[in-house]
Every structure is written in C-alpha cells, then in structure tokens.
Amino acid sequence: MVMTESSAPRFGERVLEAVKSCQDRKDPPFIWVMEVCKCVREAGLGLPCPELGQVLVSTLCFSVNNNNNHPFIWKFLDQALSSGLLYSFHVLALLTPRVICRRQIQPEAYRLYLELLKRYTFSFAPVGMNSSREKIIKSVDDALQLSQTFGVYVSDLGHAFVLFLFTVIISLIDCVMDDWGLQPTSIDKLSSIFGVEEHLNMDISSQGNQDDERREHRELLRKRNAFMAMEVLGKLTESRKAMVLLRLVHLNMADKFNGLLQRIQFLEAHKSVSANLKSASELLVRLSANVERALGLEYQLNKRQLIGVMIGIGSCSWGSSCNFGDVRAACWVPFDIYMETAMDGKQLPATSSIDILTELTKTLQVINRASWQETFLALWASALRLVQRERDPLEGPIPHLDARLCVLLSITPLAIVRVVEGEGEMPLAAVQGSIMSGSMGTNYKHGMDGTANASRRHGLISSLQALGQFSGLLSPPASVVVEANNAAAKAASFIYNFKNGNDFNVGNRGDTYVKAGGNMRHLIVEACIARKLIDTSAYFWPGYVLPSVAPLSDPSPVQGSPWSAFMEGAPLTGPLKNSLIATPASSLAEIEKLYHMALNGEEEDRSASAKILCGASLIRGWNIQEYVVHLVVKLLSPPVPPNFTGPGSHLVDYMSMLNAILFGLSSADSEHILSLHGLVPEAAASVMPLCEAFGSIIPTSSHKSSTGDEISAYTVFSCAFLFLIRLWKFYRPPHEHCITERGGSTGSELTLEYLLLLRNSRIASHNSAHVDRTNKAAYLLESSSAPPVYIDSFPKLRAWYSQNQACIASTLSGLCSGNPVHQVANKILNMIYWKMTKGGTLSSNSTASSSSISGSPVSIGEDVYQRPMLPAWEVLEAIPFVLEAVLSACAHGRLSSRDLTTGLRDLVDFLPASLATIITYFSAEITRGIWKPVSMNGVDWPSPAANLLLIESEIKEILAAAGVDAPSCSAVTPVMLPLPMAAMVSLTITFKLDKSLEYIHGVVGPALENCASACPWSSMPVVGALWAQKVRRWHNFIVVSCSRSAFKQDREAVAQLLRSCFNSFLGSMHDTSSLITAQKGVNGLLGSTIDASGFRPSLAPGFIYLRTCRTIHNVQFVNDVIVELVAESARELADRWARADSSRLKSCQASLASAVTRAKQVATLGASLLCVAGGVQLVQLLYQETIPTWLLSTRERKVTDGASVSRILEGYAMAYLLVLAGSFIWGMGKTSSRTWAFARRARIVGIHVDFVAEVLEGNISLGCDPATWKSYVSCFVGLVVSFAPAWIQEVKLETLRKLANGLRGWHESELALSLLERGGPAAMGSVAELLHTMND
Fold first, then answer.
1. What is the 3-state secondary structure (H, E, C) of 611-668?
2. 328-329 and 933-935 as β-strands: parallel, antiparallel, unpaired?
C-alpha cells in the first residue's frame, strides 16, 4: 500500500494523536517510537520514512504556538534516528533552516540540533531506487534551496548529501561570525533562508513572560552555543569521509569552496581583535587544519599488493634515471625525439613548435613528478644535444644548424615564457592552497604530483645556473663562436662598468675583449634576458664570466654597428645594405623601421628592406626572431595604397618588394624557421592572393626568362606558387591521398582547406576575449578585423586545385581541337619544338608535327619561336596535356629522350611554376604503372653505373650498423626506370645549383624522393647515384637520404629498426651490470653526433627512424610492433629482477624499483616513437584497437621464476604506454593548443574506458593473464587520476561507476573513490555512496 496525497493528512493526524497520547502518559521515548512505528506500518509506509520526518519537523518541533518544543520531542527524535525510524540526513536537512534562523530566540533547540549534527550527520546510507529516494531528494533540495544556491540540478541522494554537508559547514561558520559580531562585507552569504528571523526580539519567550534567571540562563546558552558550533565544525570536518566530501566540492565547485576559504581567512585575520576568537583559537586551528588536510588528500593504492608498490615508484628526478651529467636523461627522451623530428626539413608541420613544446614541458613535468628546475634543465639539455648532434652537418640542400639553433635560442625560450607566465593557469590541484597560504601559515602541497608548488621562474633560474656544469654540451659550433664570445663579452662589459661606476651600456663590445670564452650558455642567457625571463643579475653568477676576460689596455675604437647607422638615417645602398643583410638586428625598433620602409619607402628601398628582413635577422636574430617572422609574413599581404585607383591589383605596385620577400622565404632555412614558429597557415593564406593576382596578369612582350634578374609577373607568380605548394606538400605520392578504412588519411592531413581552416581559427581566437597574453608577437600578424580566407575566394587557384586532384585520380581525357586549352597547349608545344629544332638540334626520330594534341601538323614558321604571352593560370591548365603529348611521343619513338628532357627544361625556364604540374602528372603516372621502363644506359638516358654499386653498398652498411638486415639491392643490368621517372630525374639533374634557384630546388628534392618511392625499392639508389655524379660533395647526404627508402614498403625492415631503437636506448637486457648504468640513453638512440669524418656517415637507429617513420606506407602496423616490443621488454625486465640474488634482501626493493623505472622508460620511448610516426591517428588506433586486441589475445608464456611479476609489469608498462601516448597528442588539461586532436579525446578515451568497463562486468572475455589485466586497469586508472583528471570528466558517469565497482572488487576502494571524485559534479553522489561502504 502506497500513501496517496489524500491520505497524507490523515497519516499526520494519527502520528500527532499517538505522540500526544504518549506525552500525556509520560511514556519514555522508546515507547513513542513504537507507537509511531505502528502508525507508519498501518499507513503502508516503509522505514526509514521520509513522510514521518516531514510531519515531525514541521508539526511537532516547530509548530505555530511552539507548545511542542519540549526536550521530550528532541529525545524522541534522537531515539527515532538511532532506531532507523527516520532518515537522519533528511531530518537534519529539514531542521537546519528552521533551527538556525531561530537560534537566538530558541537557543535550547539550537543546542539540541548541534548535538544531533555531531551524532548523525555521517549516518548517511543510500536508499534503494524507490519513491522514498526521490521524495527525500526533493524535500532536502526544497528545504535548503540547494539547486538555487549551487546552480546545479540535484540528481541523486549522494549529491544532495554532499551539498547538505557543505551548506551546514558554511551556515555554522556564518552563525558563529554573526553571534560574535563579525560582519564580513566581502563574503557572500550562501543562502537567504537562514536569516529571515534573525532580528526577532530575543527577550520575548515563546511561552510568555520569563523571570530574570531564565533570561540569564538563555543568554549564557547562546554564548556557549557559538563555541559548541565551533566544536561541531571541528567534528564534522575531521573524519576522512568529511575531507573527501570537502575536496569533492573543491574540485567541482571551486568558487563555492573559495567562500569557505575566505571565511576561515577572515576568522584568522580577526583573532587578535576578537576576544571570542582568542578563546576559540584552538577550535579554529582544528578547523583550519582539517580543511588543509582535505585539500592535500591523496589516494593511496593498496600497498599490500605489488601493483600499489609499482605505482608508488616512478618519480623521475635527479636521483633516479635522469643523469644529465652522463647525458642519459631517459625519462625526458620525448623532448629529444620531438626536437629531432622537427628538424626533418621535408616535413613542415602547421602547428607551432612553441605550442607543442609548451604542452610537452607541462606534461613531462607532471608525468615525471619533477621539480621545475629539473624540468627546465632537461629541456635545455635536449635542445643543446640537438645542436651538438649536427654541429658539423653533412653538406646538402636540407637545413641543419640554423634550424637547430632556432629551436635552442628562440623556440625553447618562447615555450618557457608560456610555461612561466602561465603559472596562474595551473591545474586546480596545483593551486589549491594559494588562497589560504597567507592566513593559515602554510602552503598546501600539490595534490597531483606530490611536488611543492615552487616558482617556475625560480626553477628556470636554477636550471640556467646548473647548466654551466655540462661543458660537453655547451661548446659552440664554429659558425656561432663569434656570437657566443660577444655574449660573454657583453656580460664582462656590464660587470666592468658596474664596478667602475660607468654608464651601463651593454651594447656589443665584443671586439674590445680577448679570450671571452663564450659558450652556448651565454647565448641561452641572452635569449632569456631578451624575453624578460631573467635580468642582467645573471651576469654575476659564479663562473658566468671568466676571470681572464678583461678589457684591452689600449682598446681600438669600436666599429659602429651598421644598424646604428641605419637607425640614424643612412640610405640603404651599397655596403650598408650588405652589412645589414649579414648582421642580425638586435631590437624590435630596427625591424619595425624596415617593415615600414618596405611598405612605404621608395622602390629601391622597398626591395632592399625586404631582402634585409629575410637575411640574418630572420635566420639568426634569435632574440627577436618571433617578431621578424611575423612581420615578414605580414609583408606578403600589403595594404591597398591610399592613392590606388586601379585597374588591376594593387599588389603589382609592390612587385619588387614581394619578389624579394618570396625569394628570401624560399630558402630552406627560412621556410623551416617559418614552420617552427607555426606560421605555415598564415603564410599560405597570404600567398594565395599573390598567386591569384600575378597568375592572372598577361606578361609583356619584353618578358625575359624568369630565372634572370628582371622581375616579371611570371617570376613573382612562380616563386609564390612554388612556395605555396612547398607549404602544402602537394607533391606527396598519390597513394598518400587515399583514405583508409578507418576514415583517416594514410599520409599527412595537410591540404589547402586545412591550412586555411587553421589560419581562420587562429584569427577567430585572436578576436575573442581569451587571447594568449604570452604570444605577443601574434598581434603583429593579423589585425582584429582580418576576415576569414577560403579557397573559393580564389577561382583560378581553385580551378587548378581541382584539376590537380583530377590528375591524381585518373588519366586525362581528350580535348577537341576547338577547345581553348587545346589551343594553349599547341602554342606551348610550338615553343618547345622551335627550341629543339633551332640550329638543327632536333633528333632524327623526333617529329614535331606528330606531337600536337590534335594530331595535326604543328607549324614551325618564323614567328612560332615567340613565347606565348598568356596568363600563368592558362599555361598551367594546358601543361598536363602537353606532358601527355611529349611523353607519348617519346614512348613511341617519335621524340628522343634528349629532346624530351630539353623540352621539359625549356618549359620550366619559360614558367618555373609549371614544375608543380610536371611533378603531379609524372608522380600520378608512375603510381599507375602504365609506362614501360626505359634503360638507363648512358645513351638514351643518363647512366648511374659509375657509382651505383658504391651507393648501394654504403646504404646497406648504414642500415646494417642500425641493426637492419636490408635485402640485396644490386642493380639488374641494364638499370631500368619507368619512363616518367627517368624523365623526372633527367630533368632535375639539368638544374644549376644556384642560390637564385632555391625556390625550385626546394620543390624538386622532396618530390623526386617521393616519386621514387612509388617505384621498385632499387629506384632510389639509381636516383641517388645520378645526383651524386652531378654534385660529388653531396655524396654522404645523398647516401643518407637514399637509405630511408628501405623502410617505406618493407615492414620487416621497420620492425628491425624499431627493435634497434629499443636496444640502443635501453642497452642489452642481458648485460650483467646494473639495469640503470647499462642503458645507452638518448645518445644511443639518436647519436651524439652524425659522424661524417670517416668514409661514410654513421647514423643511430633512432635518427633513421625519425627520418623515415612519416613516409612508411600503411603505418598502422607500427602500433603492433611497438606494443609487442614494450611487452617483451617488460617481461625481460621482470625476469631479470627475479634472477637477482635472493640473499640480498635489502637490495630487492631497489632492484624492483630499477625494473619498474626501466619499464616506464620503455613505455615512454614506445609512446614517443608511436606519436611521431602517426600522430592522432595511431593513438586513436592504439586506444580503440591495438591495446584491446592485445588484452583479448591469448599468448603462450614460459614458466619462469619471475612469471607473476612479469605479468604485472607487462600491464604496468602497457598502461603507461597508453596514457603517455594520449598525453603527448592531446594534452592532460581541459584545453589544448592542438584543437584538431583535442576534439577527439573525449570520444577516443570514452571508447576505451567503455571497453574496460565491459570486461570488468564480465561481458567480454579476456585472453591475457588475469594478473596482467588487473595490473593494466589499476595502473591505467591510477595514472589518469594522478596525471590527467580532466579526462575522467569526459567519460560517462555510468562507465565510471562500473570501473569503480570493479576496483572495489579488487580491494582498491581508495582508487575507486579517487576516480569518482574527479568525475565532475554528476559523480558527487556516487562518491558519497561509495564512502558509505568504506571504513573511515
């Protein structure tokens, strides 16, 4: 029987009658309980009964005439609560607003209410899913106005209890402050429901007149009640359950919790002026200490189990595996791997290296539980190793040292700026005690990583001071010795002037010093000073300035800086211009003056200013490089002059300046530095209007070769167009444009649309209110009114883009003779054949008339030699048909190979931008495989025979040294290549190695390598042999480049290389020395130097992997290889630990710690190698398929002494691998600069956690050992709880509950509790219910 609304009044009447009868008979309270319980049973209600609580509180305790407010009533409540007749939490919630607002006129009731709070607050027990549960939730919510106060929907009973407890604590503190006359004006009241009757006349009793004795007794009781409230507060907050619930509010309702902290701070501040507070000082200290402990509360894994011991190990600090002195910073290897990956000049990421390095620094600091000093020191050490690795680089066209110096002296300091200035944006757990630190006398500890919340800036200073110990890393490369000495001399000059009271002019006075002893630390310190990370007090650090550095006794006059002359107004002509190009600027004012001259100066000054900006200031102006690159990109979009009236584009007026900028950015170093600063999207968006405008201009008849000195529309268009496609990387092999069955591209995700999307999103973020204040240079790039850019805004570019995609997708369709494209193609063919036949050079087997697209004879009259005066876009549209014609003619013997090469070269000379279409067409045709191979015999086509065998043998030796057993690649006689490939390589070796042609070589090199990847494996050695004959000094560089082709389609070679990476990093597992000292570390993985001093270069396996992993076909299999290597290494580590001498019991724990630390290193290496190979796609595959498949698979295991530990260590390493891989890709916090990856995080993590939950519920059967599974789940949850709590809030609540239930079944209730605690406001109720099942 369920009580209806109509029967509710009758139930209340029967209860009142029973109570009145008991009261008249003066029955003891337990008789009252029996009588009322009988009423409840007769009404068909269950126990505990919420309806009864409502009746008793509203009718008996606080009736209108208060006749029933008798001690017997409160005794009855006590008995009813203790016997389970009433739901204690519900009754206390109903009493709270009624008693508190009447505490002055009814101090007895308030006293009894406080007693009930002490006894029954934590008698919380979950109620089954029935109607009573919903009634209690609604009744409590209405009584305390929880939904309105906290702005949340009270979803369940546990949620209501958490908010009730916090409300009671806040309300009691407010009561104490009010009763003691303390009225804080800056603290908001939690709710208005507790003060509606505060000002009733306290001298009027509810039962009529009182004598003086009674009045004095009540006044004394009021005073005592305030002290008792403080006691109750201490009691309510001292249990671990209370601390968990308080921390729950702190994590999920920080603003409300800050109100509690402010109240305690207010009480602390007024102890000296309030007599009551002085008397209650011990009670206040108790309350403060309880709140402090609540904030510092950390979960503890079950230390009685091996898994709990392993999770406790793993701090990566100076005392563990991070031995910087030996340069074996194993736990910081992601720094080295990322930096070295960024040095691949053939892969230009669109994301800023500053953003990536900033997030990686924060992530590793948390993961390694390191101090900021250790973190920054590891970061500097990695950047220094990066420079030292190629301090004497192989000679070749790919940038080396300047890009590495950019990372050390510009990118790394800028990343540190964001880390340091973002100190106020630390995770909630990291700043949890900052509000109270001034009032409570102590700083709360960091709740997630256990390290003190020390100043990041102080950690940076300490790291720079400690950096001086590593002299082996600080030796400057020969090309920057002068800059290092100048930096050291600058410090010496400052100290000298300081001691002698001179003017503190710290300008460049390096010429007045001898033996300055400058090293890389001096350059690093100057870079930090320039970013205001530190000040010139660094010059006084011990050992920073060598004692031997002193001014010359008779110093010669210091030569004036060319920049000083420029700032004083000297014209940009002759030697001054050359000096400015070769000397980097030292201040932003100098750069800004050049920028304005490039826009508003005379014609000659515009071009000169642009060249200077793209000179040494861009390449080596490390201290202001971020400003230079932004201003250079901004110059690509010059404003419309105020006096411009048309017709045409205003960009033509800036032709000389734009030409200088484009040629300056076309160098490999400039392009790479631009990419490191993350400006690829902005540069692409700026170049598109240039391509559209200059590609639509009809050149004049006086137009000369675009490779000459004369500036023309073709010149500017070709340079802009080729620069755009270098940023886009359009020349990837066609197979990389395919979509896999999982929905992702097999290659890079870079497309024109994607670049524009990135650029537009950045503009939107700049226009928003939440602008990154640390990215000051970004303001120079775009104004707040910059509109979004879309490819449809450029119809000519869009048309070519569509044609390019169609060329990749299918062969060309025929054209009718009247088609305009047909006519343009014929004109181009006429131009090509006139060049061939001029002077009788046309080969006997070449028939010009037969190669017309229409098949009709081509006139070779006297006027045909004139080059067609057509817009560049029209020429590009016709070139695919020209290529089809000449290639078909050559294949059928109507055109000789020599004439084909000559014709292609003439086409590139005529319009260099045509190289883009040539590459696209040839690459597609090579992939389709429809052309017969031709013999590279030295007669028809160039022969590689002179050095092919040497190239192949050197490639094989390099691979063998890296542990890769490469198949024999001896060339078959005669050497054969597909016709398009032969034509491509023959064309490229005709180009001169001229600096003015860098914009062409920057496209040709990567495209040639990618085209060769579509051919058989041996084609790359053939290409390399031909180029090595052309440029002998590039021999070593070519051999290294060719060695990478072995891995593109050979899975076994990739697997061998990955195994070598693990072995070189970790050392031999069978070494009898210490597990820690046996490792080879970063230098073993990547090499300390790329040694080219011998007969051939020596490459470390990790270096080869980083240069090849992003070109591997179907890279998904790398996941399986890495997972198996991590598992295998973990098993071997456990077996090694088990074989240790059992008699040495004292070293057992240390040995286990070493094994666990090594397992973490294995996982760190695996996660790093996986992320650089495939990014978010491979990580998504890892979460959704690879790890679940590994857990579901059954594997045979050898029975060894360490079998049990082996299984546990496997699960530990796999959990670390998974969490680290996710952290590297999408970060640990609630936001990430990699929005494209961050957006997938919730879905990917959610899918994996759903899988884990399904297994825990028994819905999926496992194949792995149960110990491995338990270790994996416990460690995975523990790592996410500790390091990435933001992930947990993105998981469904039901899934979190399933996980928590599974952990409780393993006696890991603490971990289950911590998991739910971080589940957001929706999980608060689940935490309270779980607490009920745990011992306090």
1. HHHCCHHHHHCHHHHHHHHHHHHHHCCCCCCCCCCCCCCHHHHHHHHHHHHHHHHCCH
2. unpaired
Percent of the chain with pLDDT over 70: 78
Q: Which residues are bridge partners to 934 per DSSP?
A: 977
Measured between alpha carbons, how far apart are the two ends of the chain, in Å? 38
**3-class SS string, 895-952:** CCHHHHHHHHHHHHHHCCCHHHHHHHHHHHHHHHCCCCEEECCCCCCCCCCCCHHHHH
Return the H-helix or E-strand segment holding 329.
Answer: strand 328-329
Between the CA of residue 1142 and those of 305, 1137, 1147, what are the distances in Å? 20, 10, 9
CA angle 1204, 1210, 1216 (to 5 degrees): 140
Closest-CA residue to 400 (of 409, 387, 413): 387
Looking at residue 603, what is its pLDDT? Answer: 86
Length of the chain: 1336
Full 3-state SS string of 997-1032: HHHHHHHHHHHHHHHHHCCCCCHHHHHHHHHHHHCH
Torsion over CA of 297, 299, 303 and 309, rounded to 10 degrees?
Answer: -110
Question: Distance between CA 463 and CA 375 in Å, rounded?
Answer: 8
- pLDDT tens-digit series, residues 535-559: 999 999 998 988 766 554 444 444 5
Tokens of residue 1183, six digits: 């979460």
**Whole-angstrom Cα distance, residue 1068 to residue 1045?**
28
Angle at Cα 669 formed by Cα 665 and Cα 670, nearest 5°? 25
Q: How many helices (H) does the chain have, and how many strands (E)?
A: 59, 4
User: How far, in Å, CA of 663 to CA of 646, rounded?
Assistant: 26
Count the Cβ atoms, other than its own, within 10 Å of residue 18. 18
745 bridge partner residues: 739
Higher pLDDT, 1056 or 1307: 1056
d(CA 177, CA 287): 14
The residue whose two tokens read 């540069």 is: 683
Tens digit of each residue's pLDDT (9 = 90 or more) over 82-123: 888 888 889 999 999 989 988 888 898 899 999 999 999 988
Q: Enumerate residues 6+ apart whose C-beta is below 8 A from 708.
A: none
Phi, psi of 1068 (to 5 degrees): -70, 130
What is the gyration radius of the CA atoms in the chain, in angstroms?
A: 39
pLDDT tens column, 412-424: 999 999 999 875 4
* DSSP codes, 522-543: HHHHHHHHHTTSS-GGGGGSTT
Closest by Cα among 136, 129, 131, 133 to 164: 136
The CA distance from 605 to 603, in Å, is: 6
The H-assigned helical ranges of 652-712 are: 655-665, 668-676, 680-694
Q: Which helix (H) or strand (E) holds 977?
A: strand 976-978
Cα within 13 Å of Cα(877), Cβ side: 20
Return the pLDDT at 820: 84
988-829-940 Cα angle (round to 5): 45
The pLDDT of residue 777 is above 70:
no
| Structure token digits, residue 1076 | 């820690």
CA dist 1183 and 928 (Å) reads 35
Determine contact, residues 1274/1299, Cβ cutoff 8 Å.
no
Confidence of residue 1079 (pLDDT cuts 50, 70, 90): very low
DSSP states along 716-761: HHHHHHHHHHHHHTTTS-GGGG-B-TTSSBSS----HHHHHHHHHH
CA angle 1290, 1293, 1297 (to 5 degrees): 125
Which run of H or of E encompasses 336? Answer: helix 333-342
pTM of this prediction?
Answer: 0.87
* Tokens found for residue 811: 């062969």
Helix, strand or coil, per DSSP, at residue 324:
helix
